[in-house]
Amino acid sequence: MSDTFTFTVDGVEVAAEPGQTILEAAQNAGIYIPRLCHRDGLEPAGACRVCTVMVDGRPQTACNFPASEGVVVDNETDQLLELRRDIIDMLFVEGNHWCMFCEKSGDCELQALAYRFGIAAPSFPFQFPADRQADLSHPDIWIDRDRCILCGRCVRASRDLDGKHVFDFVDRGPAKRIAVNAEARLRDTDADVTDEALEVCPVGALMKKGTGFDVPVGRRTYDWEPIGSEIEKRQTQE
Amino acid sequence: MDESLEQAVSEICDQYNNDPTRLVDVARAVQARLGHVGNAAMDAIAGNLGIHRVEVESCVSFYSFLSTEPKGEVVIRLCDDIIDEMKGSSRVARAFRKELGIDFGETTPDGRISLEWTPCIGMCDQAPAALVNDVVLTWLSSDAARRIVRELREHMDPQKLVHSFGDGNNAHELVRAMVDNNIRKAGPVVLAPVTQGDALHKALSMSPAEVIREVKTARLRGRGGAGFPTGMKWDFTRGSDGDRKYVVCNADEGEPGTFKDRVILTERAELLFEGMVIAGYAVGAETGILYLRGEYAYLRAYLEHVLDDMREKGLLGKGICGRQPFDFDIRIQMGAGSYVCGEETALLSSCEGKRGDPKTRPPFPAQKGYLAQPTVVNNVETLCCAARIFEKGSGWFAEIGPHGSPGTKLLSISGDCSKPGVYELPMGVSLADVLDLCGARDPKAVQIGGASGRMVGEDDFERSVSYDDLATGGALMVFSHKRDILKPVRKFMEFFVEESCGYCTPCRVGNKLLLQCLERIMAGKGVPEDIEYLERLSENIVTASRCGLGQTSPNPIRTSLKSFRVAYEDMVQEPEGALRPSFDLGAALAEAEKIAGRGSTILNE
Fold this sequence. Notes:
CATH architecture of the largest domain in chain B: 3-Layer(aba) Sandwich
Number of helices of chain B: 25
CATH topology of the largest domain in chain A: Alpha-Beta Plaits
CATH class of the largest domain in chain A: Alpha Beta
Helix content of chain A: 10-25%
Radius of gyration of chain A: 18 Å
Strand order of the largest sheet of chain B: 6-12-11-15-13-14
Strand order of the largest sheet of chain A: 2-1-5-3-4
CATH superfamily of the largest domain in chain B: NADH-ubiquinone oxidoreductase 51kDa subunit
Structural class of chain B: alpha/beta
CATH architecture of the largest domain in chain A: 2-Layer Sandwich
Oligomer: heterodimer
Number of domains of chain B: 5
Strand content of chain A: 15-25%
Shape of chain A: globular
Helix content of chain B: 40-55%
Shape of chain B: globular
CATH class of the largest domain in chain B: Alpha Beta
Number of helices of chain A: 5
């Protein structure tokens, strides 16, 4: 495209096209900006705040902030690394995450990010919420709200990719939770095991039944390389 | 399914043309008719409006004045802000509990009366106060609480609880409220007398571009606290492409300790609406929306009457002031109990019939606001100033106050002072002078700008109220030397935890963690590193939060740590043994002991 422009991420010049977000442009250049609520192909939400970068010294979420000519973006500063670590920590203590018993372990983006950030144990006090209801009603799908991080990927995927509206958030603040398009049970919605919404959950909150251990531990997405390395490889190959 | 429910919901949805963007109004009306918005009602609403049921639930469950569970016919909501607490709300609460035989959050067994706490209802100058359905009751005492319950049991009519009316329009037949204006100082800009139509006629004799230039010349800045230049905002909106443009007035005065908009709405509604019409003319809008906080529902009938009156006089509606082709009309959008809706983009979400989640910026409201069209969002006081600028001239306005902060500022003053109420003072006035004026008693701290503002101590009393120094939306709470400084801080943090929309992680989780640490310190179980923890966590919440709520919610802690650090230091101590004082070993082992069926040997050592 003729009106391509450039900006910098941690001093590295990055090319971008009008309409691209900072995250997209950086990613195309082999720079990984950690993210959790964002996933390629979904409308960005800016909800988890893990992708917070400094744009000309001001905090912005890279997933939904438009790239523009000549801006100076800081990505891996001590301040931002600490900030992201804190956010990841918050998500861990907010829910009930037991990686060692979780069938998503190794494929879980929250867990993978924690490893990437060297988090062995959260620095915030565990909240151990006791009010998070699981939903096992659907024959093929189950919801484990203990593990939900309220990223909203399933909400957007169901709405925008599946053309349904199976999920949405109810209540607010710390009580906010994912709900289904029925009085209570997922089985009373039009959710289907082939829905894209099921593919996008970054954690083990929205799962297909009976497939949890199809891929053995040791051959899972993040078992050998940290999350983000698939993006960073693009840089080294060039 | 219940046919009468179906029928009722269908009628209500019809009233709003089955328009899903009016979901908040629909839900309010359904609740008014049926007492709550239950499962069957949510299904019916979704069916009528052609949206998904979970969208209805998402919205209804967001607002604290809407309920998916049955509630009493009458709901008593006692204000739980810090000023009410200082003025004795706990005694009132006890009397309500005892007289009703229920606790807060409960409904009497006969299903008639519910009792709840609610955050600031904008009556700090006449606290303790409560809402009984839409009716405001002020200056409460334990005697009054008992009387209220007894009277309610007889007639169940909240309006009959009002035995005398307040001053000014509070006594208007469409208001009939016991609320007092408490105007202690009327200034020349907002609270001076109004000749209806004067400002509007003058503004409409100019071209829209001239109108914007006049506002810029006056150097008017937003009165909500952020201080964005109003003329520039109007200019951006005028210059943005859109099929339609909108003017939205933010009357969701939810900042704890703020009540000046309530007084403007009661006494200067004409001026405000003229300001909206002028803004509409300037930016090229045909529709204005007044977003009125749910707590001020008692003013709605009166405000509708003012609008009707303006339509009759040709000051609103088609062909305003006889000059064509300018058409502009205003509708009132009721809020439903949510502080974050005072954030301009959350307010727009709410106007669109959604939960009050703030929107992603960019785009800004001036580019894509209400229904993705260019929208001006201005504070009540700002629009009044704008109107007055056309009546008296931009030069006249710009000469009041310092250069960077022209005009007056309305202050809502409450707390430990002998003359709480509304003061219209020139910008630039010193805090010390304000404290003098309001009869502050032995002031130790002032919370300026409400919960999201800052707590300042004596060292700052010589500073001034202006955009260049202590910028504020206008709330001032005075705390005397006999007060524990940490109590208001805790109250404000509880408030933010309750009012966070929950969209982003730092605000949803971080504020709760801040509150827990503060509670630990106040319980005498804090350690010195807890202070650093508060500082670091606060900074990260401010940096990473998505909207103004999270970006300011740690302010009570940050600013009190700056002004009153010793209050924290006095409460923390180095742990004596290996365990932190906040760690309760007995509690931690209790469940294991229960399962094992025997006592812990560690504990017994």
